[in-house]
Amino acid sequence: MTRTILSAWSLLLGMAVLMLGHGLQGTLLPLRAAAEGFALSSTGIVMSSYYLGLVVAPFIVPHFVGSVGHVRVFAALASLASGIILAHILWVNPIVWALLRFLTGMALCGVYMTAESWLNSKADNRTRGGLFSFYMVIQTGGFAGGNFLLNLAPVNSWQLFVGVSVLFSVGLIPILLADNQAPPPSRPTHVGFRELWRLSPLGLVTIFGIGIAQGGLYAMGPIWAREFGMSVGTVSIFMAVTLIGGALFQMPIGRLSDWMDRRIVLAAVSFGAALASAMVLTAQPSAETLVLVLFFLFGGLSLPMYSLGVAHTNDFMRADQLVGVSGALLLANGLGAAIGPTLTSFIMEQAGVYAFPLMLAAAHAAIGAFALWRMTRRPAPTAAERGPVQAIPTGSPYSTVLAQEASAVRREAQEEEVRQEQLEEA
Question: How far is Cα 421 from Cα 426, in angstroms, rounded to an integer?
């Protein structure tokens, strides 16, 4: 395992730097939009545009990869993201920013696809899960760390935008100087939501619902925190502890769901996240520490739900359904994440900014209730039928395909072992 990680050190280092920039811009933009006087609904649309880019990119990026290769596409898209963030300084306008965020989503989706296909080529079935878990920690840690960089300059200055651009550019260096290249990724062949619903209704609802909730969290969380009375420095801590909670709870929750009915775990963490978010409504502005603890717990329970949703769907998937189901899950999550910021901003605009934690609580409670209802409609898969949970970085689209591919391969190997044992006993 250690040897596999060391073989990918340049890629992991480069992605860590890129994620620092991504984490910084993700919190900087909504705060700057509020400082510029953007309406909440306009800010929500701007932030939703990023996820629309994530949805569109898988249909476009593979064609460029097939023409000029991964390394050139990777360099072009990372450079594009580096330049786009600077354009936010030149044109401070919600419509322009929405277009820029859409392009950023497309660019970073291409970066994810390239990096994760490279990682997949360096792992075998024994090491893939561990490598991608380590990659998830690197990605989440970089995203969380980027929030602390908000304290280096005022939000209404140009320096932080330049800092994001520098990080995107510097992150390219170790990757482009590496002596090996990424292989071409698989091209998702999408299936309809009707077929995905037939295969796993709970998986579809979880992936779509968590996209809405987490899209709203990342986009509108910084604005809510400022309205709550937090300083910019505390806002950076607020976003970081939420992500850190998700990183720390990811593996224990995943392991637990491997040992018992995954729907019970999914319902428990959904209601737990809803409770943690609802309790924020009782906190006074002076109780910042309590709010940070509650959102640490919320992140720890909410962020692993993406992996649980994928794993639950995978439990009912045949090997020949891999590509189509993966594409449908990516689209469902991307559409949910695109809806989330806009929906959350409109709710906050109509009901007040304090409706933010209530919206998060309602979304998670709905998923939990649906999980309980599904337990009455279909028996749980047996332990032999369940594949292990893969720690998947939320919002990292290509890793869904890779995780399901690894699980499908492992399940086929397990089924083959069972058949061999049955033949020997016969």
Answer: 9
pLDDT of the residue at 125? 53
Q: Name the DSSP letter for residue 180.
A: S
| Cα-based distances in Å from 225 to 13, 168, 281, 349 | 31, 27, 12, 15
Q: What is the DSSP letter of 320?
A: G
The answer to whether the beta carbons of residues 95 and 189 sit under 8 Å apart is: no
Write the CA distances from 98 to 56, 84, 93, 296, integer angstroms. 15, 11, 9, 30
> How far is 155 from 147, CA to CA, in rounded Å?
12
Please state the domain extents for the chain.
9-425
Whole-number percent of the chain with pLDDT over 70: 76
Each residue's pLDDT tens digit, 95-105: 999 999 999 99
CA distances from 49 to 53, 292, 310, 415 (A): 6, 28, 24, 43
Q: How much is the pLDDT for 173?
A: 86
- 3 state SS of 384: coil
For residue 277, pLDDT beyond 90: yes
Instruction: Name the 3-class secondary structure at 40.
Output: helix
Structural Rg of the chain based on CA atoms: 21
CB atoms within 10 A of CB 181: 13
Query: Distance of CA 363 to CAs 205, 206, 275, 308, 416, Å?
Result: 11, 10, 11, 16, 40
Nearest to 398 by CA among 338, 329, 317: 329
Q: How far apart are alpha carbons 131 and 4 in whole angstroms?
A: 7
Let me know the angle formed at the C-alpha of 81 by 80 and 82, rounded to the nearest 5 degrees.
90
- pTM for the predicted model, two decimal places: 0.76
Query: What is the rounded CA–CA span in Å between residue 17 and residue 170?
Result: 7
Report residue 126 as tokens. Answer: 């024994």
Instruction: Enumerate residues 6+ apart whose C-beta is below 8 A from 105.
Output: 49, 50, 51, 52, 53, 54, 55, 56, 57
CATH architecture of the domain formed by 9-425:
Up-down Bundle (1.20)
